[in-house]
Write a structure and sequence with these properties.
Protein name: Fluoroacetyl-CoA-specific thioesterase-like domain-containing protein
Strand content: over 45%
Number of helices: 2
CATH superfamily: Hotdog Thioesterase
CATH class: Alpha Beta
Helix content: 10-25%
Pfam families: FlK
Structural class: alpha+beta
Oligomer: single chain
Strand order of the largest sheet: 1-4-3-2
Organism: Guillardia theta (strain CCMP2712) (Cryptophyte)
């Protein structure tokens, strides 16, 4: 369902942008047999310049709705996002775990 939401707003992204999930609330409604095909849909319910809220659903090849919920994605600049990720990889001397 997250992937469906990501794909739904991909055409809105400018060069150097990506979207990141910021919230998800999913209810699992029904089991799905192994090997069944699952189709996920995401419908934009609300949109601002940098934030999209979705209604998401998943249906299996038996025709049953197997999940539903809400999902929120934010548009971010790839370079700034990756800079923050790289900063977290830096180990600071005072952050070393105690033994």
């Amino acid at each position: 369902m997250e992937e469906a939401a990501c794909a739904a707003i991909a055409p809105q992204l400018k060069a150097g942008e990506t979207s990141v999930g910021t919230a998800i609330n999913i209810s699992h409604l029904s089991p799905t047999p192994l090997g069944a095909t699952v189709t996920a849909t995401a419908t934009v319910e609300e949109a601002t310049e940098r934030k999209f809220s979705f209604k998401v659903t998943a249906t299996d090849s038996c025709g049953d709705k197997i999940g539903e919920g809400t999902h929120t994605r934010a548009i971010v600049k790839v370079d700034k996002f990756m800079q923050k990720v790289m900063e977290k990889l830096q180990v600071k001397p005072n952050d070393s775990p105690s033994l």
